[in-house]
Design goal:
Elements (H helix, E strand, L loop, with lengths): L4 H25 L5 H22 L10 H21 L5 H8 L2 H11 L7 H17 L12 H20 L5 H22 L4 H7 L2 H25 L4 H4 L5 H14 L5 H40 L1
Helix pairs in contact: 1-10, 1-12, 2-3, 2-8, 2-10, 3-7, 3-8, 4-7, 4-12, 5-6, 5-7, 5-13, 6-13
Amino acid sequence: MSQRPTLGIALVVLMSVCFAGMDTTIKYGGQFLPVLLMLWVRYAFQALTMTAWLARSKSAGFRAAHPKFQVVRGLLLLATSAVSFFGVQHMPVAEFTAIVMLTPVIVTILAAWVLHEHVSPLRWMLVVGGFAGALIIIRPGSGLFGWAVLFPLTGTLCYASFQVLTSKLSALESPYTTHFYTGAVGAAVITPILLASGIDISAVLRSASALHIGLMFAVGLLGTLGHLLLILALGLAPTATLMPFVYVQIMSAAAFGWLVFRHVPDGFAWIGMGVVAVCGAASAWLNVREASQRRLVSAVEADTIAD
């Protein structure tokens, strides 16, 4: 696929709007619908959509080169989704999103701790800055300082682990096959939990209005579409070009939060979200740049050995 960075950036911005819209829909729908049911719909929709996609694809299939890693990756994203679905019921969407956007900062810590990679002083400064931004958002007196902040913090750790594993799989698997397993693993795990939860699904569906059914459909569509847009964007532009635009999700979440719930973050929250966005975007850019440099060095060494 040819490089078209402008289109790639546009797709990432649209992806960010999709995810912010999904979180807002989940928070709104949680007033009328079981959150666990919405979580099941999100993954069942993706599993069915990608099954149809792969069935017609000539370049990708259902066979995974590393099925165990696919299962672990799917479980990590499911855990991320679960804390997000339940977390936004207790926190404003914009502030929740900003804390989750600490993910590139957490990736830095995991790279140092798990992968034993060297981390520069600048990277550690960004780590400290990112956490400082999060503390500004959830500071005592903000109304957010409480047990509910465990949801986005746990989600950030799970999503950072998910990204580290994804980076290892990206060169080994078709992204569409990986996307299928994400939905399939999530649906396979959530289905028995939903059935054992005691939720009377038939009663919920009988009493649900057209709006409620539409909300569940929107959750599945926005989640699946958002990830597909990211896959397509990565085929059009370098990751380093795209990653800073992921932080449009914070502004989108704030806009949706105002439109639906009339919630406006206070001045300190805006400052904290800005700090998180700057540190996170810088960390993401450095992650990608250093990965590219390592691949270049490996290629040069391979050519040298071949000569």
